[in-house]
Design brief:
This protein has 237 residues and is of the alpha/beta class. It has helices spanning 42-50, 71-77, 94-100, 108-121, 123-127, 138-150, 168-183, 195-201, 219-223, 226-232; strands at 4-13, 16-26, 31-35, 57-62, 65-66, 79-82, 156-160, 187-191, 204-209, 212-217. It is globular, with a radius of gyration of 17 Å.
């Protein structure tokens, strides 16, 4: 049994059929990557799992049970989403932003231990803990968004376009961090336009095109697929 199971999910925005019978499995401790072009439905899938978008039909199971559609209860159940565009609280300090990630928790000692863990992962955030978050660089804001997600003590972390708009060196840093999060024992669902990076870290991967899953396999299998290489990796065979 997969930790997170999406079964025949259909999402509509008015008359637009954004997700068309999407089914994916996310096994515990794995990185599962979803690749696809803009408008393919990747963020819609994330938002449906988080309860931000309501789905018309299908099923989302978490640890074998139907997942709630209330966003706060999704977080409480152990699933957090690090949204596209970071969406940090620009007027709060770095430290205050981290604490917002723990707003459903009451274990004060555990919260402070996780703040220390985030600072160990992101030393730059500790250096800037009193700095107003809106003055951070794009890469630092992405680190903060991921750190804030970790503060909710999730079992599953969903990362929506974590490398978007970042310089190549910072992209490498972010993907090193994704591997480190996996080593912490977390399960990761990754939506990412940088297909090469996404497939390189993935245990399993899916291709989402026009709201439908068109291919799936291990990250290595999709990396070596000529059709994927031409469509998403800029390679011709």
């Amino acid at each position: 049994m997969a930790m997170l199971e999406i079964k025949d999910l259909n999402v509509f925005y008015g008359g637009i059929h954004a997700l068309r019978g999407v089914s994916i499995d996310v096994e515990e401790g794995q990185i599962v990557s979803i690749i696809g072009s803009n408008g393919a439905g990747k963020s819609s899938l994330m938002n449906a799992i988080s309860g931000i978008v309501k789905y018309k039909s299908g099923e989302i199971l978490y640890k074998g049970q139907k997942l709630t559609t209330a966003p706060n209860k999704v977080v409480k159940a152990g699933i957090c989403q690090v949204p596209e565009g970071r969406l940090i609280f620009a007027n709060l300090t770095v430290y205050e932003n981290l604490l917002t990630g723990a707003y459903l928790r009451s274990d004060k000692a555990g919260i402070q231990n996780d703040v220390k863990r985030v600072y160990e992962m992101f030393p730059r955030l500790e250096e800037r803990k009193a700095q107003i978050a809106g003055t951070l660089s794009g890469g630092e804001q992405q680190m903060l968004a991921i750190g804030r997600g970790i503060m909710s003590a999730p079992d599953v972390i969903m990362l929506d376009e974590p490398s978007l708009g970042l310089a190549p060196l910072m992209v490498n840093t972010i993907f090193d961090i994704i591997r480190e999060i996996k080593e912490m024992g977390k399960t990761i669902l990754l939506v990412e336009q940088n297909a090469l990076k996404a497939l390189s870290v993935a245990d399993r991967a899916y291709v989402l095109e026009q709201g439908r899953i068109t291919r799936e396999g291990t990250g290595g299998e999709l990396l070596n697929d000529p059709g994927i290489a031409e469509a998403y990796l800029g390679k011709r065979n």
